[in-house]
Design brief:
It is built from 6 helices and no strands. By secondary structure, the protein is mainly alpha-helical. Helix 1 runs antiparallel to helix 2 and helix 2 packs antiparallel against helix 3.
């Protein structure tokens, strides 16, 4: 099994480089057009030259978002704020209406639901008692 390991590693590198090249946007490809990089990866994949060339020179690499590459990334980054502590997020939940209008809308909706529930309970009681043998019609 150990004798197949180098072949499997080369194959994995080849597949990774090929998929990475296909998924990379055209504006992030360096040096050559994207189609040429795909051909290089496919033709020189067995000798590792194509995939390694793509990984080293073909794609623009970005620094990690966490900021291990430099100290400036950490200082320019904004701190994460939980949604319930973020006033902009809370305003977006309310929409354009104020608290009173939202409360009135919620109350009206709740009353409609309660009336519908009462109506359905009464229909169910009538059907069970035998007064209304046909099923209720769908309301629109």
């Amino acid at each position: 099994m150990l004798r197949y390991l180098p072949f499997l590693l080369v194959l994995a590198l080849w597949i990774y480089a090929f998929i990475d090249c296909l998924n990379t946007p055209e504006e992030e490809v360096r040096g050559l057009p994207k189609v040429v990089w795909v051909i290089i990866i496919l033709l020189f994949g067995e000798v590792i030259v194509g995939p390694v060339a793509w990984l080293v020179a073909g794609k623009v690499r970005h620094a990690p978002a966490g900021g291990a590459a430099g100290g400036t990334a950490r200082t320019s980054r904004t701190e994460w704020v939980a949604p319930d502590d973020n006033p902009e997020f809370l305003k977006s939940l309310k929409g354009e209406k104020g608290d009173d209008e939202v409360k009135k809308d919620d109350d009206a909706l709740l009353k409609d639901w309660e009336a519908d529930l009462r109506r359905r309970e009464e229909e169910l009681k009538r059907r069970e008692s035998g007064e209304d043998p046909q099923p209720p019609q769908a309301s629109s």
